[in-house]
């Protein structure tokens, strides 16, 4: 049996999102966040479809329609949610003998930090409504899409801080988790990062906030060049780790360092996790979070180097980091063969 976890830059049917609503943590900033979601959906439907879950489909539909979004490319399904982080509760698509299969892992609010009883049912709800085509396998492990990166050729990258968290799969050792990734994702090489974090991040250092696998043996990563910043030491250590990583053929990776934005804080003075690594690759484009920061354009330019030939589109995600995530965190790509 041949199992493979496709790379994000492979062809897609669409992207899964969950519409913000008053019962989510977005309640205090709903208009601003809905504006961000609307712009994100507007850009995605230029290239592929959107599968949108919403407890109140009419509210989402009316908002998008009023903003001029092409609803012919948006399928809205009535599904109750706790929140909107589809990267971590949406299905992870693998190929089994060249056919897509959906893996429905357990989601426990990033190690029992937040309620997730509704989010944990979203994939099953979508399958029951006929919104997802492939066979779905329910997996008895806690696993989040933001915690892994794949190059589509057997290499998976992750962080030990997240996967070895005692509130996720405490019964499994590192070796057993690596074995699970081999059997579930077809991983032939697992790259573990031991260092790196972002203040304000609730995920225990998801890899998609720190470093991303890209085509042509390239890794894009966050780099802090300010010795006075609290992130400096850990991210310097992470950079050294990345320099030591090699491909299965023994070659070093081509490393592209993303610029470091100015510190962003919420109203209470808490640092927010602004990361340019939290971008989304879709068909023929890359959607990149921006933060109204002087180095936004530098980040767009660096990601363009990693994805030549794709349109690079900035999306204002300053509202999103108020709830400690960004653009990649609220999306889950759906490879070809997943949508009807």
Automatic annotation (TrEMBL):
EC number of the protein: 3.5.3.12
Group of enzyme by EC: hydrolase
A GO molecular function held by the record: agmatine deiminase activity
The entry's keywords: Hydrolase
Keyword DNA repair: no
Pfam families the record matches: PAD_porph (PF04371)
Superkingdom of origin: Bacteria
Gene Ontology BP annotations: putrescine biosynthetic process
InterPro entries: Peptidyl-Arg-deiminase_porph
Protein name, UniProt field: Agmatine deiminase
Gene source species: Trichlorobacter lovleyi (strain ATCC BAA-1151 / DSM 17278 / SZ) (Geobacter lovleyi)
Taxonomic classification: Bacteria, Pseudomonadati, Thermodesulfobacteriota, Desulfuromonadia, Geobacterales
């Amino acid at each position: 049996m041949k199992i493979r976890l496709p790379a994000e830059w492979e062809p897609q049917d669409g992207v899964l999102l969950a519409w913000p609503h008053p019962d989510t943590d977005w309640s205090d900033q709903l208009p601003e966040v809905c504006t961000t979601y609307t712009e994100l959906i507007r850009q995605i439907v230029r290239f592929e479809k959107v599968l949108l879950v919403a407890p109140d489909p009419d509210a989402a539909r009316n908002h998008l329609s009023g903003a001029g979004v092409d609803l012919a490319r948006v399928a809205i399904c009535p599904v109750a949610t706790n929140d909107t982080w589809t990267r971590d509760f949406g299905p992870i698509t693998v190929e089994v003998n060249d056919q897509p299969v959906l893996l429905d892992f357990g989601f426990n609010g990033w190690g029992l930090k937040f309620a997730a009883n509704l989010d944990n049912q979203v994939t099953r709800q979508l399958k029951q409504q006929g919104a997802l085509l492939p066979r779905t396998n329910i997996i008895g492990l806690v696993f989040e899409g933001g915690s892994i990166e794949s190059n589509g050729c057997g290499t998976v990258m992750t962080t030990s801080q997240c996967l070895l968290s005692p509130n996720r799969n405490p019964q499994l050792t590192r070796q057993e988790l690596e074995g699970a990734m081999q059997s579930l994702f077809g991983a032939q090489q697992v790259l573990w990062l031991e260092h790196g974090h972002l203040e304000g991040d609730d995920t225990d250092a998801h890899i998609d906030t720190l470093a991303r696998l890209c085509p042509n043996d390239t890794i894009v990563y966050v780099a802090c060049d300010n010795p006075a910043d609290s992130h400096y030491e850990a991210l310097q250590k992470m950079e050294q780790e990345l320099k030591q990583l090699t491909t299965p053929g023994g070659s070093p990776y081509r490393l592209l360092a993303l610029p470091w934005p100015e510190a962003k804080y919420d109203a209470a003075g808490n640092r927010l996790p602004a990361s340019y690594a939290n971008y989304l690759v879709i068909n023929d484009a890359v959607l990149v979070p921006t933060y109204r920061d002087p180095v936004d354009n530098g980040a767009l330019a660096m990601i363009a180097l990693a994805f030549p030939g794709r349109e690079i589109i900035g999306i204002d995600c300053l509202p999103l980091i108020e709830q400690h995530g960004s653009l990649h965190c609220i999306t889950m790509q759906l490879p070809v063969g997943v949508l009807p």
